[in-house]
Design a protein that fits this description.
It is a single chain. The chain is an alpha/beta fold. It is 29% helix and 16% strand. The chain has an 8-stranded mixed β-sheet, with helices on both faces. Strands 2-3-1-4 form a 4-stranded antiparallel β-sheet, covered by helices on one side. A two-stranded antiparallel sheet has the order 13-14. Strand 2 and strand 3 form a beta hairpin. It is globular. The C terminus is likely disordered.
């Protein structure tokens, strides 16, 4: 890429310093069982025009990749957030400065925040074990969520059952909760969370939502009316392999864990693997990219399982996919510039006094909105709404911090007719996870 500072990784360090740094990093990673991100920073860049946006997009095309975009280049009015490994900081900052790209340091050292969160999660687990209960204000591993699902289904078997719709690449079960009051011909709503494995707040959202549905049925008129007329299918862990990997090795992992002969990098961005608009804007054909779309549409077993289930059901009326790290409501079809026929209907949450400021990523964004286009490429005709959790003033993008897992029954901040838009973080602090159904409204 023209203008990018050439040279070896960590060029500003002496050979001895580099060796010491690498040895220390490997020792720490081995001791903790997790990859170490000491010295990695998150930079927020403000592009003035399309030319500068193009310069930022060039960074994504580097092989090997030097940055991890948390908020990709979309349009000049929106900031770009990217994680830069410590070894690449000097080169990346020099590149930005040489092209007049203004930036600020949003997170000075990612590992400091990760260490703080691990300590908080450990305390939460000890407390949970001592009470022999399931904490709805903590993040949980895949095994803990699967155990909770079994117990939850047993406790609410009158309206709840568990369905296995397939297996992941690494042969983990793909489970779906079915909320139903009976009958085989009911229309249905599909909700999935956690398709991007590092977005821990979305799994917590699904768990909160599931509990709220069973608690409010028979008490809240809207929830009761919806369940009497429709079934609800909820996939809480849509990317089980990636999610397990975030807990065992790399908490910044986003994709699934599929591998293919002859390709060094592993994983596919499952949210870019849908058939509709495959390979278009917002996705990448570089297997090392965080937005790699995969070799072909629906090539990934996690996506194929969803598609097969929804198409075989035949009566899904609404699809909702919950993500984090943005304040956006996206609807199909994001890869196209053509407005859909029911665009006005799909805009209904926007303008509500309870939603707060939002960005609507619609089917007709500006030509430069490469991130919003393609993000909502879905497999089927039903509406696929994608609430993007929102954050207020929390400086840690993909944080796993537990300080954001708290009910918000008395606040309308970021609410859109029952959907809470969580802080712009993949996994805010445990103690501040908000109640996603303060005022339930699941009408399609």
């Amino acid at each position: 890429m023209q203008g990018f500072p050439r040279g070896s990784v960590g060029r500003g360090l002496s050979p001895v310093d580099r060796q010491t740094l690498l040895v220390c990093s490997f020792v720490l990673a081995a001791a903790l069982g997790q990859m170490n991100f000491t010295g990695d920073q998150v930079l927020r860049v403000l592009a003035k025009n399309e030319k500068q946006l193009s310069l930022l997009r060039d960074l994504e095309g580097l092989k090997p990749q030097k940055v991890d975009f948390w908020r990709g280049p979309a349009r000049p009015s929106l900031p770009v957030d990217m994680r830069v490994p410590f070894s690449e900081l000097k080169d990346i900052k020099a590149y930005l400065q040489s092209h007049g790209l203004a930036y600020s340091i949003m997170i000075k050292d990612i590992q400091v925040l990760l260490d703080e969160e691990r300590e908080a999660m450990a305390k939460s687990r000890r407390l949970e074990r001592s009470t022999s209960g399931f904490s709805y204000s903590s993040y949980h591993t895949l095994e803990e969520i699967h155990t909770w699902i079994d117990n939850f289904v047993t406790d609410h078997s009158d309206i709840l059952s568990k369905i296995q719709i397939g297996h992941s690449f690494e042969n983990r079960s793909i489970l779906v909760l079915k909320f139903s009051t009976g009958g085989s011909q009911h229309p249905a709503i599909w909700i999935d969370t956690g398709i991007h494995s590092r977005e821990w707040i979305t799994h917590a959202t699904g768990i909160w939502t599931a509990r709220k549905i069973v608690n409010e049925y028979g008490k809240d008129r809207i929830v009761t009316d919806v369940l009497n007329a429709m079934d609800i299918f909820m996939e809480i862990v849509s990317n089980p392999d990636g999610f397990a990997y975030t807990h065992s090795m790399n908490c910044l992992w986003r994709k699934n864990k599929s591998s293919r002969p002859g390709i060094f990098c592993i994983g596919v961005d499952l949210n870019r693997n849908w058939k509709s608009g495959f390979g278009g804007n917002g996705s990448n054909n570089n297997p090392c990219s965080e937005t790699y779309h995969g070799p072909s549409p629906q090539s990934e077993p996690e996506v194929a399982a969803i598609v097969d289930f929804i198409t075989s059901h035949g009566n899904i009326k609404a699809l909702i996919s919950v993500h984090s790290y943005s304040q956006m409501l996206m609807y199909p079809y994001g890869h196209s510039l053509e407005p859909v026929s029911n665009q006005k209907e799909l805009m209904w949450p926007v303008g509500s006094l309870s939603t707060g400021p939002m960005t609507v990523a619609s089917s007709n964004p500006s030509p430069s909105s490469s991130v919003t286009r393609g993000t909502m490429a879905s497999c089927c005709q039903p509406h696929r709404l994608s609430p993007q959790p929102r954050r207020r003033g929390w400086p840690f993008g993909p944080s796993w911090s537990t300080r954001l897992i708290t009910p918000t029954d008395n606040t309308a901040e970021g609410r859109a007719r029952g959907f809470v838009f969580f802080p712009k973080a993949w996994a805010p602090p445990e103690t501040q996870v908000m109640d996603p159904f303060p005022t339930p409204a699941l009408t399609p």
